[in-house]
Amino acid sequence: MKRARLPVALASLAAVLAVTAGLGLAGGWAWLTGGEQEDLAVAPSAFPGTLTIRGERYDHDRITLPAGIVTTITLDNQDAGVAHNIVFFDFGSAVEHGGVVGGCLSGCAGGGRELRLALMEGPARQAFTFITPSQPGEYSFWCDVHPDTMVGVLVIAASPGP
Ligand SMILES: [Cu+2]
Asked: What is the pTM of this model?
């Protein structure tokens, strides 16, 4: 029964994303993560792909993605005249971290593999493509300039069982 309902859930999800794209993604994401999780089996990969910064805040403080996939996130800094970036840490909190996550394929600072973007003064956008960590768990992220207020967690979901 669950499998038969999946296409409906996908269609609903697409509709929700289409609608929320014009209304502000934060509300849509809250709706997606607030309930209906049993039907929305695709929710772990439903992050809309753009992380917006406004008023020295990320519009998502929790990004859930599957393990070991190639994905692209666009960082959209809308704070005019204010420099921001994003960096992802290996484990633990942003304060007690174990180093920067690797796996960046393009768009990261200095062309390196570390998942750290160069500081950019808004308004500006930067897309970066990376391989998500293979190890499920929580990876903190922050802005190097505002580590007290601009923090969040990248949740790497375990791959679904057979
Ligand atoms: Cu910042």
From this structure: 0.69
Residues 65 and 100 in one domain: yes
Q: Which residues of 23-45 are buried (b: 16+ CB within 10 A; e: fewer)?
A: eebbebbeebeeeeeebbbebbe
Cβ(109)–Cβ(83) below 8 Å: no
pLDDT at 65: 94
Domain extent, residue 54, equals 47-157
Which residues on adjacent β-strands are paired with residue 140? 153
Measured in Å, residue 34 CA sits from the centre of ligand 1 at: 27
- Number of folded domains in the chain? 2
In a 3-state reduction of DSSP, which class is residue 106? strand
Average pLDDT over residues 77-91: 94
Kindly give the distance from the C-alpha atom of residue 29 to the centroid of ligand 1, in angstroms, as a whole number.
Answer: 22
Q: Are residues 33 and 109 in the same domain?
A: no
